[in-house]
Fold this sequence. Notes:
By secondary structure, the protein is α+β, with helices and mostly antiparallel strands. It is built from six helices and eleven strands. A hairpin with a 6-residue loop joins strand 1 (205-211) and strand 2 (218-220). Helix 2 packs antiparallel against helix 3, helix 2 (32-58) crosses helix 4 and helix 5 (134-169) runs antiparallel to helix 6 (181-201). The chain is elongated.
Amino acid sequence: xxxxxxxxxxxxxxxxxxxxxxxxxxxxxxxxxxxxxxxxxxxxxxxxxxxxxxxxxxxxxxxxxxxxxxxxxxxxxxxxxxxxxxxxxxxxxxxxxxxxxxxxxxxxxxxxxxxxxxxxxxxxxxxxxxxxxxxxxxxxxxxxxxxxxxxxxxxxxxxxxxxxxxxxxxxxxxxxxxxxxxxxxxxxxxxxxxxxxxxxxxxxxxxxxxxxxxxxxxxxxxxxxxxxxxxxxxxxxxxxxxxxxxxxxxxxxxxxxxxxxxxxxxxxxxxxxxxxxxxxxxxxxxxxxxxxxxxxxxxxxxx
Length: 303
C-alpha cells in the first residue's frame, strides 16, 4: 500500500467506524453526561479499532496472530477510554456554561487518545522487552499530534453542522452535542485523515518496494528491527521469488542510524549493487537488492 492509499483508507475507516459508533450509541438511555460519554465511547472504540487494524494490515501483522490480538486489546482499551473521557468531559463542561469550545475540547481529547492508541502497543512492547523505543516513540507522538488536530477540526465541523441542522429545522432545544450521523462521520473522517497524514508527513525512515512482490508498497520503519524475506512472519514479505530467503535480511535501528544486515543467505544481500558481508549503515536513497526484488531506503534529513 502506498502512503497516499494509507491516508485515504485511514480517513475512510474513520468515517465508517464513526457511523457504526453513532448507530450503536444512539439507543443509550442515561443521564446527559453519562449518555454522551457512552456514545463517544462507541465512537472512540470503533474508530481506534478500525485504524489499528488498518495499521496492522499495512505492516502484515495479520499473519502474526498473538501480536495482532494484543494490539487489538490495547487499541480498543485506549480508544474506548478516550471516547468516554472526551464525551463525558465535553458535556460536563458544556452543560453549565453553554460554551461550544468545551465540546471541541472534548473531541480533541478523544482524537488525541485515539491517535495514542495506534502507537501504544508498539511503545509498550519496546518498553517491556527493553528494545530501542526511538521509532515507537515517534509513531506514538505522531499519532497523538494527528489525533488531536483531527479532533479539533472534526469537533469544529461537528458543532457547525449541529448548529446548521438546528437552524434548518428550527429545533426548540438545539443541543449541539446531540449525536447526528453526519457529524459523527465527519468527526471520524477528520481524526482518521489527520492521524494518517501525521504518520506519513512526520515519518523518520521508510522503504519502498521498487521491483518485486507488491511493487509500489511503502512502509514506515517504526520498529527496532524490520525483517525482510519470504516467511509469512516477515514485516516486508517478498513472496514468489525463490532467490529470497525465508528470513533474508534485517533493518535494525541502532541509536540514530539504520543498519542493514544479511541473514547469512546463500544469494546474499546487495546494497547499491555491492554485496554486504557485515551490518552496514544505510543512507537515504540507498537501493537494497534481495534476489530480483529492489527496495529503496528513505530517511528524513536530520538537523
